[in-house]
Amino acid sequence: MIRRSGKHGALWSLEPPRARFPRLGRDLAVDVAIVGAGITGLTAAWLLKKAGKSVAVLELGEVGSGATGRTSGHLTALPDRPLPQIVADFGEAGARLVVRSGLEAIDRIESICAAGIDAQFERVSGFRYSETEDGLAALHEEAEVAARLGLRAAYTEQVPLPFPVRGAVRIENQAQFHPLLYLEGLVEQVAGDGCHIFEHTKVGEIQEGVPCKVSAGSHLVSAGTVIEATHTPLNRSLGIQSRVAPYLTYVLGLKIKGETPVGLFWDTGEPYHYLRKAKLGSGDCLLVGGADHRSGQEHDPVRHLEALREYAGHRFAVESVEWSWSQQVFESADGLPFIGRKPGHERILVAGGYSGTGLTFGTLAGSILSEMALGRELPTAQLYSPSRIKALAAAKELLRENLNVAWHLVADRLRSHAAEGHDPLKPCQGRLMHVDGRNVAVYVDETSRLHVLSPVCPHAGGIVAWNDLEKTWDCPCHGGRFSPLGKVLASPPTQDLELIPETQRISPTMVGP
User: Fold this and answer.
1) Interatomic CA distance for residues 231 and 229, integer angstroms
2) Cα dihedral angle (133, 138, 143, 148), rounded to 10 degrees?
């Protein structure tokens, strides 16, 4: 079992608390409204403010509380999908644009840090490696393609890891940083002088018009342009949501004996693993991530942390696990993110589908969307357009993921959850149950009080599943996530799970001490 001397939670989020921002408490008019205060939203806000525009950033939780604050801090110009496949799907010119835009995103982060944000930015080499002979031919090809596309890349058998590696692609001028320190630096420069940041502000609806209207509770934000920096659009936008799939990935922060390797490392396994060194007040730690799976489709998420611990234990002298966490990423069907105008709209811009390179693509998205909000188009706009049609590139993944969604929409509704767990529920546990002729989501809080919710996700009708690691209700269809009491935590849903009045048909034996 995992021995934890630390906490469950992202390494970055355990820093001393910062100043908080208020909830939106009045109607407001700005040039651009941005939904989401992660790296995409705050990059766009920073650029727009520098261009003289007024901005309002509306965040459901707190700044950096979403995906940005739960990443591993990798900054790489390589997309998750191998470059030879990107060339096959988007052509040589398109693949060169992907590489160039990734490098430019890292350069932008570096320049912003150099201008006054101490976010532990550091240039390092990246290594995509294989521990077996099976992956070497593909790595040789990727090294050749990467160099041809403009990366400083080469095949190597010299990889600075303390376990046997057969070969790797080495890419120079990649980077790593502390994502929350970076966001806090952006926040300090965005807030004020006609620009606003609001936390704990749930956006319900966005209406396009002149101006656009963003509803948040009883208040409206009017804006010439709206940017949805939410990984997947709010509410129903199946033109994009049918082409992205939500996955959970896991990270451990380990104390190890000996030197912690310097660089970004990710293997060719399926699912793959990724490694990097992180700085701590008490020394260094090794971040080990991976063990990905489709969201809402795992009944024992802790076993994925155990798998990572076992993986690390075979390769490093692990002393203890200091941190553990998971985060949700959205994989696009054709391997590239969707950045640009929301299909069918002119003044609503969206970004998402970053896969495992969200910090790089998120910075790129903030740059592209800010330019679009200013009435300018970048050369990459067509490549990343949410309205692009790449039938051959996406067909297989699109079919697989939508069959997955359809299966869960039907099968989960037909399934009875009467026997999903026979042991009594303990405090801070949840379970799907069959009560009074219907399936319900039941949670027992720390005081042993029962909370009964509808398990139906208000976005598209999927049936949520309990995540006992993160203490959330996760929808397997489009990635909606809810707190134990049903409060929405992550888009696309904007409504909470329905609260069902307490029922007398829940047996007291279902609740443990």
Assistant:
1) 6
2) 160
Cα dihedral sign, 133-138-142-145: positive
Taking Cα atoms as reference points, which of 361, 283, 363, 278 lies closest to residue 325? 278
Q: Is 254 exposed, middle or buried (0-12, 13-18, 19+ CB in 10 A)?
A: buried
Comparing 224-233, 343-352, 392-401, the range with the smallest average pLDDT is 392-401
Angle at the Cα of 234 from the Cα atoms of 230 and 236, rounded to 5 degrees: 140
Q: Is the peptide bond before 271 cis (omega within 30 degrees of 0)?
A: yes
Separation between Cα atoms, residue 295 and residue 502, nearest integer Å: 29
Tokens of 126: 């990246």
First to last CA, the chain: 24
- Bridge partners of 265, per DSSP, are 127, 275
3-class secondary structure, 380: coil
Length of the chain: 513
Rounded distance between C-alpha atoms, residue 95 and residue 90, angstroms: 6
Q: Radius of gyration (Cα) for the chain, nearest Å? A: 23
Any idea which residue has 């799970």 for tokens?
Answer: 497
- Strands 122-130 and 74-75, sheet pairing: unpaired
Q: What is the pLDDT of residue 411?
A: 45
| More confident call, 153 vs 502 | 153
Mean predicted lDDT score pLDDT of the chain = 88
Alpha-carbon distance of 261 to 263, in angstroms, equals 7
Structure tokens at 185: 């630096």
8 A C-beta contact, residue 412 and residue 399: no
Pair type for strands 212-216 and 273-280: unpaired
d(CA 252, CA 321): 7
Is residue 211 reached through a cis peptide bond, with omega within 30 degrees of 0 on the bond before it?
A: yes
Query: pLDDT-derived band of residue 407, with 50, 70 and 90 as boundaries?
Result: very low
Tokens 């941190």 appear where? Answer: 323
3 state DSSP class of 5: strand
Burial classification of residue 74, based on how many CB atoms lie within 10 Å of its CB (0-12 exposed, 13-18 middle, 19 or more buried): buried
Q: Are 274 and 229 in contact (CB under 8 A)?
A: no
- CA of 431: how far to CAs of 110, 285, 326, 485, 509, in Å? 45, 35, 20, 12, 14
Q: Tokens for 471? A: 């203490």
- Structural tokens at position 61: 């939780």
Residue 88 · residue 81 · CB < 8 Å: no
7 SS3 class: strand
Q: For residues 202 and 215, what is the distance between their CA atoms, to the nearest angstrom?
A: 9
Rounded Cα–Cα distance for residues 298 and 135 (Å)? 28
Average pLDDT over residues 38-65: 96
90 vs 1: CA distance, rounded Å: 45
